[in-house]
């Protein structure tokens, strides 16, 4: 099978595709990119300065393009394993709508454009952080960690956690404790989020040969680690209030959301072997998306209120 897939990749890489604009948009992983853009914008919003609106728009667009470039490079390199996974087989490269060569060129061009835009119109610090984010996701995570260690998501989660730091740096030219806390929230959130997915998609990862934690350490160990990380997520979520850059209102909402997160993780841990449909895992996966969006949305509103009344 591997030989056939390799020959298929060589064949598709030697021709021009008939890709539509929507296929290249899909390479950018728009759903993932939207969350990246949102967290980056929150990182800018909580900063102690009010950026020029044009700078803010340009910075957000540059970060969005950089995130999309990472997705394109990921799809280029992972086309072989995407082809054997049910949830990714219809992506543009494994389906043949976009050739590997086109995906690589598209990702590289967007990477350079996004980094240069931040360097020229914002500052070198934010540009360097964006470049590191793209490199970490495309090279460290995609090319190395993903295929070599069950801790791929834990370490690789740093790439997805950096956008609010980039957003903060774009408007302040600094990195302080506040964006590091936002980084920590996303970094700790990533393992339980993806391991919940890995539990009910473990067959996909087995076929692709990706050493996700359930396939290597077993379900019981994965469920326990999900619960432990969920406790850390709940604690990290209230740190903005503890450290004084968010209100008590934010602290109360984030604490309630954190308790719900832990509850869903507890169900995953306790329901081991009881639910053949893996309902608890799917519930945690769905709630984890809501949790991250809600925490950052409340922090965004909170920061605007504090700036107006503070």
Automatic annotation (TrEMBL):
Membrane-spanning ranges: 32-49, 55-77, 127-145, 152-171, 177-200, 220-239, 245-266, 287-309
Record Pfam families: UbiA
Pathway stated in the Swiss-Prot or TrEMBL entry: Porphyrin-containing compound metabolism; heme O biosynthesis; heme O from protoheme: step 1/1
Alphabetical keyword list: Cell membrane, Heme biosynthesis, Membrane, Transferase, Transmembrane, Transmembrane helix
A Gene Ontology term for the protein's cellular component: plasma membrane
GO biological process annotation, one example: heme O biosynthetic process
Single annotated GO MF: protoheme IX farnesyltransferase activity
InterPro entries assigned to the protein according to its UniProt record, in alphabetical order: Protohaem_IX_farnesylTrfase, UbiA_prenyltransferase, UbiA_prenylTrfase_CS, UbiA_sf
Membrane topology, from the record: Multi-pass membrane protein
Record EC number: 2.5.1.141
Superkingdom field: Bacteria
CDD domains: PT_UbiA_Cox10
Membrane recorded as keyword: yes
Reaction(s) catalysed (UniProt annotation): heme b + (2E,6E)-farnesyl diphosphate + H2O = Fe(II)-heme o + diphosphate
Cell compartment(s), UniProt: Cell membrane
Main location: membrane
Gene3D superfamilies: UbiA prenyltransferase
Function of the molecule: Converts heme B (protoheme IX) to heme O by substitution of the vinyl group on carbon 2 of heme B porphyrin ring with a hydroxyethyl farnesyl side group.
Homology family: Belongs to the UbiA prenyltransferase family. Protoheme IX farnesyltransferase subfamily.
NCBIfam families: cyoE_ctaB, PRK04375.1-2
Other observations noted: Carbon 2 of the heme B porphyrin ring is defined according to the Fischer nomenclature.
Name listed for the protein in its UniProt record: Protoheme IX farnesyltransferase
Gene: ctaB
């Amino acid at each position: 099978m591997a030989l056939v897939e390799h020959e298929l990749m060589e064949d598709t890489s030697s021709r021009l595709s008939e890709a539509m604009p929507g296929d290249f948009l899909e390479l950018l992983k728009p759903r993932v990119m939207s969350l990246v853009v949102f967290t980056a914008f929150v990182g800018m919003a909580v900063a102690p300065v009010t950026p020029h609106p044009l700078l803010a728009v340009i910075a957000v667009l540059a970060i969005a393009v950089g995130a999309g470039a990472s997705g394109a490079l990921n799809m280029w390199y992972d086309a072989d394993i995407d082809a054997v996974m049910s949830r990714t087989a219809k992506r543009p490269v494994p389906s043949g709508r976009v050739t590997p060569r086109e995906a690589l060129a598209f990702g590289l061009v967007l990477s350079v454009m996004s980094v240069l835009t931040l360097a020229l119109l914002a500052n070198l610090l934010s540009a360097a952080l964006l470049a590191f984010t793209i490199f970490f996701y495309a090279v460290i995570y995609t090319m190395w960690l993903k295929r070599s260690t069950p801790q791929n998501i834990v370490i690789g989660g740093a790439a997805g956690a950096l956008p609010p730091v980039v957003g903060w740096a774009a408007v302040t030219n600094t990195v302080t404790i506040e964006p590091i806390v936002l980084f920590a929230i996303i970094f700790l959130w990533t393992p339980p989020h993806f391991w919940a997915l890995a539990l009910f998609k473990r067959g996909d990862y087995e076929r692709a040969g990706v050493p996700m934690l359930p396939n290597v350490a077993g379900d019981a160990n994965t469920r326990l680690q999900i619960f432990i990380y969920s406790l850390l997520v709940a604690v990290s979520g209230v740190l903005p209030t503890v450290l004084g850059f968010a209100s008590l209102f934010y602290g109360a909402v984030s604490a309630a959301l954190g308790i719900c997160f832990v509850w869903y993780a507890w169900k995953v841990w306790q329901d081991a072997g009881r639910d053949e449909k893996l309902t608890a895992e799917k519930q945690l996966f769905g709630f984890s998306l809501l949790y991250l969006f809600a925490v950052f949305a409340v922090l965004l509103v909170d920061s605007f209120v504090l700036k107006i009344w503070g």
